[in-house]
Amino acid sequence: MMGVVAPWRWLLALCLRLLFLVPAGVPVRSGDAGFPKAMDNVTVRQGDSAILRCTVDNRVTRVAWLNRSTILYTGNDKWSIDPRVVLVANTKSQYSIEIQNVGIYDEGPYTCSVQTDNHPKTSRVHLIVQVPPQILNISSNITVNEGSTVTLRCLAAGRPEPAVTWKHFSGKSHRFVSDDEYLEISGITREQSGQYECSAANEVAAPAMRHVTVTVNYPPYISDTRNTGASVGQKGTLRCSALAVPLAEFQWYKEESRLSSGLEGVRIENKDHMSVLSFFNVSEKDYGNYTCVASNKLGNSNASVILYGPGAVQNRSSSASTTLAATCLWCSILYSLMKF
Ligand SMILES: *[C@@H]1O[C@H](CO)[C@@H](O)[C@H](O)[C@H]1NC(C)=O
Ligand SMILES: *[C@@H]1O[C@H](CO)[C@@H](O)[C@H](O)[C@H]1NC(C)=O
Ligand SMILES: *[C@@H]1O[C@H](CO)[C@@H](O)[C@H](O)[C@H]1NC(C)=O
Ligand SMILES: *[C@@H]1O[C@H](CO)[C@@H](O)[C@H](O)[C@H]1NC(C)=O
Ligand SMILES: *[C@@H]1O[C@H](CO)[C@@H](O)[C@H](O)[C@H]1NC(C)=O
Ligand SMILES: *[C@@H]1O[C@H](CO)[C@@H](O)[C@H](O)[C@H]1NC(C)=O
Ligand SMILES: *[C@@H]1O[C@H](CO)[C@@H](O)[C@H](O)[C@H]1NC(C)=O
Ligand SMILES: *[C@@H]1O[C@H](CO)[C@@H](O)[C@H](O)[C@H]1NC(C)=O
User: N or C: which end of the chain has fewer CB within 10 A?
Assistant: First the structure.
């Protein structure tokens, strides 16, 4: 900077420093008798422009704006080499500069210095730079086994420092689970799977949000089986549903022997959570107790399902009362077992 400055400016700079910046013994008082008057602190968003205004009057002989101890402008002369600093007013009543495209390093105290009747006076304004909240990094989607410990992290930035919160979404409901950058879930359960939302908020702008999906693996749990009746010569079906992550694979057994699709007049169809065992043409020997086995890499579970024959309700339509259906279900089970 000094290379481009004429020698008289050197001297002026020295004077300004001595007069305005060395506090000891120098009668520099901010807002003395309400003059010089700089504005209150200035708050701007990163990237915006800030105007620093200083009110002066016609008794003023010298004026300057300083950034900490560095002179930016004296009168119409620019001292700063920063192209973002421009003079916007140097009149009898106002001495103002503009800082364009404000960055976080511009934050700090700025001083307006004036000399009136050979008395230096200063007034200080703080430039405060705000930055909207932003999520810089967040844990990736993760798959774990039930019972493990999971730690999610959400790295956020902003000025003022944003508050970070975590929410868990399951179905349509959500609840707060953490107000920290880290979210630790120890002994995770299947109910804790789903979407986790990190939100970073400060008063500058709308909160920033990002999501992480946590998948929790668990062994199959047979949630539903349906015993069914069918008469000889008809079509019959047995169903078995299992909850599992990853989805279960199904096998069907009768006594010790495993059934295969396409053999002995049966077909096995699996779709998502359910397996359906169909008999094309039920015969006497088909009646009995079947076992549905659901398995995934974490384990297996089984349940028995019964195909029962006639003797009770053959067409269990919806018009039949449930009590009747239930009672006769048991008659027919007994009936089918007596056949063995
Ligand atoms: C201006 O900002 C400074 C530093 O943040 C603070 O100490 C001072 O109280 C503020 N003044 C006003 C008038 O807000
Ligand atoms: C103010 O001073 C700080 C610290 O030296 C510097 O980083 C910043 O760029 C300066 N800003 C202006 C507008 O001069
Ligand atoms: C985000 O965090 C992960 C894990 O801490 C790290 O491996 C990755 O490099 C980070 N990504 C960025 C863009 O910082
Ligand atoms: C995480 O999972 C969600 C939904 O399950 C998906 O929309 C998103 O793209 C995934 N993110 C990554 C980084 O794979
Ligand atoms: C069902 O099996 C019986 C005896 O095995 C046979 O007589 C009948 O034709 C079969 N019905 C159908 C529809 O295949
Ligand atoms: C079917 O078989 C299983 C074991 O193979 C047994 O636990 C269950 O009681 C049987 N069901 C009936 C109705 O007999
Ligand atoms: C069914 O589960 C029981 C224990 O729950 C196990 O002893 C049995 O071997 C299983 N049956 C089949 C066919 O997997
Ligand atoms: C059973 O089926 C027969 C003939 O399809 C029908 O007439 C009768 O109403 C049904 N019975 C019941 C309880 O639905």
Answer: C
